[in-house]
Amino acid sequence: MKRKQLTAIIVISSFGLVPIASAQHNSHSAPSLTKPSTAPPVVGLSGALVPARDLPDRLKNGGFLIVMRHERTEIPSRDDDYSKPPTDCLSQRNLSVAGLAGAGETGVALRVAGVAIARVIASPMCRTMETARAAFGRADTDARLMHFDPSVTGAFEVRREETLALANGLQLGTENVVLVTHAPNLSAFDVRLGEGEMAVLRKNAVGKWVLIGRATGSEWGFVARGLAQ
Length: 229
Prior knowledge:
The protein is globular, with a radius of gyration of 20 Å. It is of the alpha/beta class. It has helices at about 55-60, 95-110, 125-135, 155-170, 215-229; strands at about 65-70, 120, 140, 175-180, 195-205, 210-215. The longest helix is centred in the middle third of the chain and has 16 residues, at about 95-110. A six-stranded mixed beta sheet has the order 3-2-4-1-5-6. The termini are far apart.
């Protein structure tokens, strides 16, 4: 009697290596948006993204919008309770110790690299305000940058348009402005970021926001250490 052969199927995880700066991100780092963008990927004005190490030099001349997703949050974390005020930190997801440290690292790296920030505007929720204050020492609040309430029909679209309207109303001139917000709001610019990651944008000739490059504080930290030596 022939012996039956068993074939073992080995399933290899599709997860690859991740950057050090995002390795500790929790499940919120790659959110599934209610209305994912169908727009084509955005690239820099010259057709290619500027490497993270070269972004500080570009930013020194001003005129850029830096959109930052709040830093890393607690694991496990609570859900946001939208029935409470946005300043009630006990009713929402908050930054972890690593997130607070990462925000501070971002701020130090930008200052050492000589990047001037004229204004910082943040969602009034605790994790965004803490990110902004730890990184930049200050922030104005704007409710248009808040995370949308998923229980409200159409809230995602409204918040997306509000975020875009806020950005379009800024007069950058030769100044850099930072918006600290949440993952869903980033759809206003057709970008997705990990917690603590930043996108550098500028308007093109027809007034559309174009992604110039993206970076984490750790990536800019390498630039800052080189300049400090």
